[in-house]
Amino acid sequence: MSDSSMDAIRELQRALREQQRTIFFLRSQMVDHRAVILQNVARTEALEGYAANSRWGRFRPRYSPMVSLEMTHLGRRLEEREQRRRAQAETVDAPAATESDEEGTSSSSVPSNVQSTSGLSTGMVPVNAELISTQATPLSSRVNNGVPLPSNVAQAGASSGNDAGAVAENSVRTFGATIENHMNRSQFRLVREELAHRSIQHQVEQQHQQLLHRAERDRQEHIRQQFDEAEVLQEQLQNQEEQQNDENVDPRLHQQRAAQQAQYERLVRLQLRESRRFRSGVASSVLVPPPLFWEGDCVICTNARANFYNIRCGHVCLCADCAVAAVIQKITVCILCRAPVNGIYPYVR
């Protein structure tokens, strides 16, 4: 075999190794991007679940210290407001009771002391006129010892209850606004996470498409260069054949060179088929390399000559050290064609 053919085969081997490295890099990039997408999706789902549980009351949400303090003050204000309301209701009911008692006393001509004694004899509660007159006086006109209050003081006392109610209502509105603001922030956070997730997914798709286009462009350029080299080699072989015909060289040497040319053309066709399959989305591991791999460098370390082959497919692709390592690591498939390994044997040249 001529040196030019051997160099061409080595170039093809290097091209195959570069292709495998590129595919491995693309797959690693896809795995990294998928991991980022899964993390964002998990975080978004957790936020959505938190919002749903808070909305339906499945667990008690944790509020900030400011909100907790506001809730405590609100409870106290509501209790004070309820107490004032009950006190006002009792003061309103007291004059009505005294009026009914006065009607009963005016209808009878018996003196008050006699009526009290008759009440004791019959088991009824005695009536005190001073208590009735005091209870009949409105709350706004009574003070200690029965002295009436000024009108402005009475109005201020009446308005104090209204002010407390207004403060309680304002507290309720403030608390409602705080809760609504908290829910709005949670919803805004969910929307922001969703937009970030979509942006990252769009960037991943763009990077993936760019890597695929770049790899396809590099592959086409490499194949174009290989075709150019093949044409140059074909012209050289034709010139050599013409020289052989002119010089009447040995026919066996002519057959050997023809076999080398056929082998090289076959390798070029395999490269073209591999490029077409890669363009259609088929992985490179399903491609079928040539059944006969010509002797050269080791495909693993590329530092020594290949002296061992697989008996199943016949690929001479391992040096002595790499063959021993393959046996120790129990490699079950051929490195080039993925054919089952039935045994690795030394190749005798």
Automatic annotation (TrEMBL):
Residues 298-338 form the RING-type domain. The keyword Metal-binding applies. Residues 78-121, 235-256 are annotated as: Disordered. Residues 78-88 have a biased composition (Basic and acidic residues). The keyword Isomerase does not apply. Keywords: Metal-binding, Zinc, Zinc-finger. Residues 105-118 have a biased composition (Low complexity). Pfam families: zf-C3HC4_3 (PF13920). GO terms for molecular function: zinc ion binding. This is RING-type domain-containing protein. It comes from Heterodera trifolii.
